[in-house]
Amino acid sequence: MATDKLEEIKTAVESRFGDSILSFDTKDGRIVLKVSAQASHEVLSLLKDLGFEHLSDVTGTDYIKDGEFEIAYHLWSHAKKIRAIQKIRISRESPVVKSIVDLWPGAQIHEREDHELFGIDFVGNPDLSPLFLEDWKEIPPFRKDFDTREYVKRRYYGD
Amino acid sequence: MATNNLEESEISFITIPFGPQHPASGHFHAKVKVDGENVVDLVAYPGYLHRGFEKLMEYRTHVQNTMLSDRVCILDPFSNEMAYVNVTELAVGIEAPLRGKFIRSIMAELGRILSHVTWIGITSMALGLESGTRISWGDREKIIRIQEILTGGRIYPCYYVPGGVRRDFSQEHIDEIFKLLDYIEKAMKLYDDLVFYNTTFMTRMENVGTLTKEDAIALGATGPNLRACGVAADVRVDEPYDGYPYVNVDVVTMEKGDSYARSLCRRGEIITSISIIRQLLEKMPAGDFKVKWAMTKKVPAGEAYFCCEAARGELCFHMVSDGSDKPYRVKIRGPSFSHALAIFPFLVRGSQLADVPAIYWSLDSCPADMDR
Fold first, then answer.
1. Chain A residues touching residue B59 (CB < 8 angstroms)
2. Which of B5, B52, B331 is closest, CB to CB, to A59?
3. Which listed residue, of B23, B142, B149, B293, carries a Cα 20 to 30 Å from B135's Cα?
4. Any domain includes B111
């Protein structure tokens, strides 16, 4: 039953986006799909139409060795009871991606957080002002080249 | 914390700070723009409790991080430990024994009662019902006492470990928990009179801050705030984990979506939690309560993702491992982030100034969980 639903979603997504879908995994009843950054917004829009109406989270990860950021969109369908994670990779040098605020208004703050902590620019997000940090002048702190311990020593102990 | 979005030149409006003094909002600051009594806009300024736990976890081993995980939300530590140890178990590839899973679920439900009872106190305080505050915070101590006997920690138990729990239940603990449940059940009658069916409480809460089902889903509401809009979404039922597949979880939903419906949802959840703990204690299997796992062991490279139902809603941990003994990246999805920063400003716009605390506390946001 649950497998049928997953196969249905897989067919719907792959038939429309074909080459833009880099991988589609349905392990443990959960969808994990890797998508090219250009197609990300359209695929998310389709997933929303397929019933994934709850955007749980937008997670950034810094893969400094690959020179890339990964953004993971965590979705949940209240009707189908399925979780889906869509992942995209963008260049670390020019981290720009289209905002999904038009699909989920709740994405606004998630993108704002990722902008502050990773420096990713979400085009179309109306407010990307700092959320947590006051008078922050260093590089975005959740990047891997930011060393928290070195910063604390320098900032608070003058070493 | 951030730049001010309100137009300074609009002199007919007055901007009033809400928080960050503790009794008003709990280390959360917002600027409320009012035109007379009407709220025109609200801009939230979080960050007073941003400790950067996700980054700090990258510097510590998987077992050390359990100590950080319960500090994410002060009022609901067990749920955070639950999500953290489960995501670690998935990353490592171990599974806790059944007795350990049952104990974890029992303590998570006790933590839910603890969180909701504390919420009764804070909400009563925000609405001027002082006796509700005193009595519920007194009862909170009774729950904390059990937590202290069992785990040694009053506020931060640090009780769960990847692979189970630190200590086993004894018959004495089980008897104490049964006694506590009887007590809370009796206390609920008092809360009904003092708080839930009190005229002041009802007048302040009814038809205030009404959230529709569509808006709730679009803005990322979860937990009691979503269930109060009529959506029967509960991770304990939808993706059952630990002890929950073995018990009957009665999902409490309301239809109206206003502050009062959210309050009644929490009232119902205390009763559900009492029932779940009794079922778990009766079915508790004998045997080991944890599996042995070396504390400094390297974790295979890969990703793990786990969601649980915390007192405030969906709590998820996303862990990326690179093959070392420390996580490469941990992301915590706390329920209060969406509730306070997306839903609270949305509900407050167009309401009355006096309703702001009622709406804020009916959403039960935890600034610690919001800022991480």
1. 148-149
2. B331
3. B149
4. yes
